[in-house]
């Protein structure tokens, strides 16, 4: 409600400035209430207990500034990052565009982040606090050994993370998505799992929505073989469905409502390819409880969102979780886990 009143003022700002303002506002806001752990939406994924299936997708809190404030708004988990070993400025501005008429976003941020050292220092101060914290890791654009970057990040961040996500699917770092290719991916994941060490947090893999069927089968096989915790499906798309906004022609990754159909389809493809042998995290164009529920019924054990928060504000977490409780009862399911893949 409050956000709806503020939105015209927020949208009058350049999108990146609005985003900084949102982070500051969250930092200053009262702590809020974490979602209750043993409520009706409680679920277990990759050995982790979550109060509900809804999380904040990577990219909103790149530098791990406000994970607890987001958990306090009712999200069941928060994925911070992507974080790279060294600080990185990212691409030239403007690089973030609101496609308001389409309820979408295009970004070509390019892994701008303050680097591992600062994020580590911040996250160390919150160690021991409740809440599921995913740390999404990436490689520096100029690195001459990207696999070593991911391994280093896994080693450094493992003690601070409830789970780690290996992001090889950003369209804004040239060549990064080639790490999804079969040969490269197996080597990368072996290095990450080795660096994370025995007894470390589960490792998730985040994939692009622009994959061919053969890629999907290969990725599914490798992920299951390596015992990954989950596949995060998916990142932003380089495809351009019909769009109305004047920013439609901007280069970068598209997210929000125009990604919804494609993200749902690729989730179904991964469900088919994995047969439920590995949990899936559904991301892309989720804006309502119905969207989240459809993704769960299609095979997602967890769901995440980012773009919809730009249009609806952080109150979206409580709206969606309340709606999910209603939909679960309506369709006769006793738990989220029971509904996963039931379509
Ligand atoms: C501005 C922006 C920055 C993003 N940065 C990252 C990132 O650093 N790492 C990552 O894995 N995904 C990143 N994403 C992708 C989101 O995590 C998510 O996969 C995608 O936006 C689809 O979800 P949505 O439609 O709910 O936004 C970013 C998305 C946006 C809009």
Automatic annotation (TrEMBL):
Residues that hold substrate according to the record: 62, 107-111, 167, 172, 235-236
GO cellular component terms, A-Z: cytoplasm; plasma membrane
Residue ranges annotated for the Dihydroorotate dehydrogenase catalytic domain, each copy included: 41-328
Membrane topology: Peripheral membrane protein
Keyword Disulfide bond: no
Keywords of the record: Cell membrane, Flavoprotein, FMN, Membrane, Oxidoreductase, Pyrimidine biosynthesis
EC identifiers of the protein: 1.3.5.2
Reaction catalysis annotation: (S)-dihydroorotate + a quinone = orotate + a quinol
Gene3D superfamilies: Aldolase class I
Active site, UniProt feature: 170 (nucleophile)
Cofactor binding note: Binds 1 FMN per subunit.
Cofactor dependency: FMN
GO molecular-function terms, A-Z: dihydroorotate dehydrogenase (quinone) activity
Top-rank taxon, per record: Bacteria
Listed Pfam families: DHO_dh
Binding residues for FMN: 58-62, 82, 136, 167, 206, 234, 256, 285, 306-307
GO biological process, one term: 'de novo' UMP biosynthetic process
Functional summary from the UniProt entry: Catalyzes the conversion of dihydroorotate to orotate with quinone as electron acceptor.
Family: Belongs to the dihydroorotate dehydrogenase family. Type 2 subfamily.
Xref: NCBIfam families: PRK05286.1-2 (NF003645), PRK05286.2-5 (NF003652), pyrD_sub2 (TIGR01036)
Description of how the protein assembles with itself and partners: Monomer.
Protein's recorded name: Dihydroorotate dehydrogenase (quinone)
Species, as recorded: Aurantiacibacter arachoides
